[in-house]
Design goal:
Two copies of one chain form a homodimer. In chain A, about 25% of the residues lie in helices and about 35% in strands. The first copy, chain A, is elongated. In chain A, strand 2 and strand 3 form a beta hairpin. By secondary structure, the first copy, chain A, is α+β, with helices and mostly antiparallel strands. Chain A contains seven helices and twelve strands. In chain A, helix 1 packs across helix 3 and helix 2 packs across helix 3. At the A-B interface, helix 4, strand 8, strand 9 and strand 11 of A face helix 4, strand 8, strand 9 and strand 11 of B. Strand 8 of chain A pairs antiparallel with strand 11 of chain B, so a sheet runs across the interface. Chain A binds a DNA duplex through helix 3.
Chain lengths: ~260, ~260
DNA sequence: GAGTGGTCTAGACCACCCT
DNA sequence: GGGTGGTCTAGACCACTCC
């Protein structure tokens, strides 16, 4: 948007033109955050296009996280608030952090990304929970534990962050492996965050190796793209390296 | 999909049922990678639903990166090949890496995420390029340089990776700041990768500080979610930390 | 009950590809 | 020319919210 506007002519299809016009109105403040935009009927009349074309444009804007439609009420401009977190900061405990246990099951790890950690192939204990910040769902966590050692600390995992739970049991994390990727929302994450299918998600797969034999923790943290991003720093790549993750980029919120 | 199938009844709408059925056929091999699936007309007949319902389902599958539709030809199952890269590994130079310069412009940095690096507010030199691996576009790079110092090395930047160009000029990187996030594809990235609007993108914002005064490099690397993911490791979080980024997760390809 | 968004349908035109 | 996907239309039903 900031690049190559190319607003010479309606570049292509009708619904794109409509979408970009609405986007423009959001950018320039014609449509205010948290306020409803005109109904599909009104927009259809204004633009002189059919309803489904309007709806198509709105659907795309929803997929881009710009608006939220509530059936029976209206369509609202989404207020953008994103949290920036340090990657190495595994136990941040922001103020206002709460969590809600969703399920505890026995499952084999099937996710192809997580399999690159070469986890045990047996069924493991799987704890799923939602992490809220200021009563807004920000993270969806799936933690996998070796089934045999987990019984005594499973309660801990359902109320605390993984790293916090480990620390409380005096288990030392010797190594943290992370894989970060993006993915379209599917299944349970859609419900947890109330987002449409295909909505971009930031995923952080983790493997915590510990000094205690047989205890390795695997899992994924997932967040909608507009809620969370993460930062790292690598000081002095040549010569002697120092503490990883010490960042000059502070943890903060910013408008996107 | 691997979680909570809940296939008791058609959970919800028709297009969802159709989508999941097609997804199932892709999973179980009924529809093979790189092979065309039946036309919308045939699918519509088979499922006994209207064409636009089929098209809706296919559009969602496209947004999820499962299929590719080519107008006038057909719809194909996408072969999943993803590259895993280490985060700290800024100059990998894989075999088969080529790049194509797209533009060199003077621009102010406007992206709100990049502004968290607090870059200079003046117009900077902006070099945009596409990075190919095995003739497939994998990365879209936008690099911002201080306009005054860049003239002599701008050619370098258009043919090489940022870090390589710096090394060739004996400029030492003293600090690397990264911000990783996900975002829906918009504008130029859609064209570069041939992906639809809203397609999940993995973004890696970077800031390279150097030992040479006044030279800091800012930029973004963007890749479709199904092409690239990245890994880091943090050994020994307590006590003395050692080399950052030394990873037990190898660089490799895997099927998703 | 009026208004909203979500879904579904039947039918149409176009641009494109392949034969 | 026949097949494909992409777009657009008009019209309909539903579930929901708000008054």
């Amino acid at each position: 948007m900031s690049v190559a506007p190319s607003r010479l002519r309606p570049t292509s299809s009708l619904h794109v033109t409509v979408r970009e016009e609405i986007l423009k109105r959001i950018s320039n403040g014609t449509y205010q955050p948290d306020a409803p935009i005109p109904s599909t009927a009104m927009l259809g009349e204004e633009f002189g296009v059919s309803l489904i074309t309007i709806k198509r444009a709105l659907r795309d804007l929803q997929a881009a996280g710009m608006i939220v439609s509530v059936a029976g009420k209206g369509t609202y401009v989404k207020k953008q608030t994103r949290i920036l977190r340090k990657l190495d900061m595994t136990a941040p405990s922001f103020e206002g952090t709460t969590m809600q246990l969703l399920s505890v099951t026995r499952e084999k790890i099937a996710d192809p990304v997580m399999l690159t950690f070469s986890p045990p192939r047996e069924a493991m204990l799987c704890v799923r929970k939602t992490i809220f910040i200021d009563d807004m769902p920000f993270l969806y966590d799936s933690t996998y534990l070796s089934a045999d050692v987990a019984d005594e600390i499973v309660d801990e995992f359902s109320e605390r962050l993984v790293t916090e739970a480990l620390r409380r049991h005096n288990i030392l994390v010797t190594n943290t492996d992370l894989i970060i990727d993006a993915a379209p929302a599917t299944g349970q994450v859609e419900d947890v965050f109330g987002i449409p299918t295909g909505y971009p998600i930031l995923r952080r797969f983790y493997k915590f190796s510990t000094d205690t034999a047989d205890i390795s923790i695997y899992g994924v943290l997932q967040a909608p793209f507009d809620r969370l991003s993460c930062s790292v720093s690598f000081p002095a790549r040549n010569g002697r390296a120092s503490r990883p993750g010490a960042s000059s980029v502070g943890s903060s919120k910013h408008r996107a």
